[in-house]
Structure formats: C-alpha cells, structure tokens
C-alpha cells in the first residue's frame, strides 16, 4: 500500500505545481486553494508511504514523479517547449526512479 500512497502523492505534486502556476503568484483564489489542498494531501500521503519505504527511495520517487509529471503537463497543457535536451533529462529522471524502485527491498 505504501507504493500506492507514494504514487498518489507524486501525482498530487504534479497537480499542485500546475495549480500554483495557475494561481499567478497566489493572486487567484481558487487555484491557490487547490494548490494548498493538493500540497497538504501530497505531504500526508508521502508521510504514510515513508512509514514503510526508505527515505531516499520515497523522496526520490515523489520528486521524480512531480518533476517528470510537471514536465509533461507543461508540454501538453501549457504548450511549453519540447527540446531534445529536456526530453533526455526527463528520461534520465525516469531511469533514476526505475532504478530506485528496483533497488528498494519493499
């Protein structure tokens, strides 16, 4: 169940990064509320996952899902640039997350 919590926490990190962008520096009420709610729930789920998973594994996977997810959302939703170096960086992050999962005993 820890992995389910961790993946959900990572997806919520993507959500709060997106809604933070939409909040325009916390000047728009509902995106700000969504950001804070997603942050809180993401942190709670991460803390539950850390009851079982090692700190390094949990935190790396959480931030990796957030980073790669925000990259993908930026491209698909916000029409951000797709360059070969940015795509390579995302694949390297994904590879690191896969290696962390493989190396984890849980």
Describe this structure in words.
With 106 residues, the protein is mostly helical. It has one domain. Helix 1 runs antiparallel to helix 2 and helix 3 packs antiparallel against helix 4. The chain is 79% helix and 0% strand. The protein contains 4 helices and no strands. The relative contact order is 0.17. It has helices at 2-22, 29-49, 55-76, 84-103.
Coarse structural class: mainly alpha
- Coarse shape: flat
By DSSP, the count of extended strands is: 0
Helix fraction by DSSP (H/I, runs of at least 4):
over 70%
- Main beta sheet strand tally, sense and closure: none
The tally of domains stands at: 1
CA gyration radius, whole angstroms: 15 Å
How many angstroms does the end-to-end distance come to? Answer: 10 Å
Whole-number mean pLDDT:
95
H/E series: HHHH
Strand percent estimate = under 5%
Low-confidence residue ranges? none
Total helical elements = 4
SSE arrangement:
Elements: H1 2-22, H2 29-49, H3 55-76, H4 84-103
Helix pairs in contact: 1-2, 1-3, 3-4
Short description:
This protein is mostly helical and 106 residues long. It contains four helices and no strands.
What key phrases describe this protein's structure?
106 residues, 4 helices, mainly alpha, 0% strand, flat
């Amino acid at each position: 169940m820890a992995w389910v919590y961790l993946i959900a926490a990572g997806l919520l990190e993507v959500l709060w990064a997106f809604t933070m962008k939409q909040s325009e520096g916390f000047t728009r009420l509902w995106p700000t509320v969504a950001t804070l709610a997603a942050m809180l729930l993401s942190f709670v789920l991460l803390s539950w996952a850390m009851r079982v998973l090692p700190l390094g594994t949990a935190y790396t996977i959480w931030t990796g899902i957030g980073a790669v997810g925000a990259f993908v959302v930026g491209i698909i939703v916000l029409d951000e640039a797709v360059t070969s170096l940015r795509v390579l960086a995302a694949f390297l992050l994904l590879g690191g997350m896969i290696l962390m999962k493989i190396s984890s005993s849980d």
